[in-house]
User: Fold DUF3710 domain-containing protein from Subtercola lobariae.
Amino acid sequence: MSKRSERKNEKAALEAAAAADTAADDSSTGDAESNDELVVRGRAGSPAVNESDGADAAPDAKSAPENRAADGPFDADEANPARPYVDLGGIKILPREGLQLRLEVEEGTQRVVAVGLDFAGSTLQVQAFAAPRSTGLWHDIRGQIKEQISAQGGSLVERDGVFGPELVAEVPAAGLDGKPVARLARFVGVDGPRWFLRGVIAGDAMSSEDSQAAVEELFRSVVVVRGQSPMPPRDLIPLSIPKTTAGPAATTAI
Assistant:
């Protein structure tokens, strides 16, 4: 398969996940929400799919790795100020060899709504949202995504991953020839201090342990800049275009 075809497959997977996620948001608050993650395999020595304890968590409980503040994803106050981050406003990305950055815009408003990261033969899309100080969003949003994927004819399981509860799904999408196909999707989320971070993964990380580990480390390195301004929960934390990027649709090596 050509690189162009692979990229189209990854884009289709992301768009299918986005459709399910957007529908979940519309059914609850109507606030800006979008894509999530894609992966269907566990670590070596662990089952590919496990039942998740997250199903029993309170809907407003925070969901994050115990070591999040030390290992990421990071709050702006926790990040190493000496590192040469690419500043995208509400999100900062740590450059590394082979990493390509894309900014995704909303049709009509031309607002930047997501950051796309191409790395290790995979695509990671991230978004950050405002959240309450003492409660989280991921448990509630995860339940909405499950309902919407099921309504679209998709199938999924819930498991515990390196970031906590996550969803592993087969999402209906259109293939390169226009015929219906199923795309694998892994939805993950982390509740931080007054913010919530999500990602969507596609590509080699779906089948390669090395790529999966590389993309998970990339997600851990993301810094969320919530700011002090009041924001309703689930509002997208504003993103901006870095000076090194030609425009919202540009792809830039960082």
Summary: The chain has four helices and twelve strands.
